[in-house]
Amino acid sequence: MRSREMYQRYATYIFRVVKAKMGNYLIFFPSYRFMEDVYQEFTQLLASDEEEMELVIQQKHMDEEERENFLHAFEMGREKSLIGFGVLGGIFSEGIDLTNEKLIGTLIIGTGLPQVCNEREILKSYFDQKGLYGFDYAYRYPGMNKVLQAAVDWVKQCEQMGAGEICLNSIDTDGVRGGFDLPMLKAVCDAVQIPVIASGGAGKLSDFAEAFLKTGCSAALAASLFHFRELTVQEVKADCRAKGIPMR
Fold first, then answer.
1. Beta bridge partners of 105
2. Predicted confidence (pLDDT) per residue in 196-218, tens digit
3. What is the pTM of this model?
4. What pLDDT does residue 148 have?
5. What DSSP assignment string belongs to 144-158?
6. What is the distance between the alpha carbons of residues 86 and 74, in angstroms, rounded to a whole number?
C-alpha cells in the first residue's frame, strides 16, 4: 500500500534532483492520484525551504488553451527553476518539443499502466487460469513496453542532437548481475547509427559475448566483476575472441 511516508520520500528525492541545478524539469507519474499526492508533499517541502521554484501541474480534461499555457511556461525565460508535474501517457508525455534549456531534466516516477477495462481483465483472467500471474500480462508488461518505446525515442533524439555514442544502463539489471538488459539494448542498437555501450548487469563471463552477439552493441562495461577480481579484462576479451567477436 502506498503511504504518506512513501510520497514524502518521492517528493524529497525529486527536490534533491531539481535543487542541484536551476532549470526546467518535467516529472511524470503513472496516475493523477499518485501525482497529486506527491505534488502536495513537494509543495510542503518547498515551503519549508528557502529555495524558490515555480510549479505547474497537469489537470484532468485540460482544454487547448490550458495545454498551451502549460507548455508556454517552459518557453519563458526565468531566474528560478520551473517544475512541471504530469501523467505518463498523457498529453504532455509525447510529441512536445522543448529543446536545449527549455527542458534540462525529466524524471519518470514508476511505470504507467494501462487503464482497467474488460479487455484487460479478460486477458488477466486467461493467464491466471494458465497458472501465470495475469496482472503481469494484462497490465505490467504493456506498461513496460511503453517505457521501452519512450527510451528508444529519447536515445534517437540524443543522436539527432549530436551525441557521439550512448552508454545505456538499465535500472532493471544494474547491480543484479543476471546479465545485460538484452531487449532494451537490441531495441536501441537497431534504432541508432552511433555506437552503443552496454552497461549494468554483467555477472559472469558469458554475459559479455551474449550482449555483443544478440544486440549488436559496440562495447560492454562492468564494475564489480573487475573490482572484486572475479574476472579480468583479458579473460573477457579471450572469451569474446573465441566466439568470433573482434576485440581491440
1. 25
2. 999 999 999 999 999 999 999 99
3. 0.57
4. 67
5. HHHHHHHHHHHHHHH
6. 13
Q: Distance (Å, rounded) from C-alpha 5 to C-alpha 3?
A: 5
H or E stretch including 82? strand 81-87
Which residues neighbour 225 within 8 Å (Cβ) at sequence distance 6 or greater? 177, 202, 203, 231
Indicate the residue type of 130: K
Q: Give me 104's grid cell.
A: 534540462
Q: What SS3 string covers 167-227? A: EECCCCCCCCCCCCCHHHHHHHHHHCCCCEEECCCCCCCHHHHHHHHHHCCCEECCCHHHH
Burial grade of 57 (CB within 10 A; 0-12, 13-18, 19 or more): middle
Element of type H or E holding 122: helix 118-129
CA angle 62, 34, 49 (to 5 degrees): 95
Alpha carbon distance 234, 60 (integer Å): 57
Please report where in the chains the cell 559472469 appears, as a residue. 204
Candidates 37, 28, 29; CA nearest to 2 is: 37
**Cell reading at 57:** 501541474
Residue 39 burial (C-beta neighbours within 10 Å; 0-12, 13-18, 19+):
buried
Q: CA–CA distance from 214 to each of 49, 93, 105 (Å)?
A: 49, 31, 31
Task: Give pLDDT < 50 ranges for the chain.
Answer: none
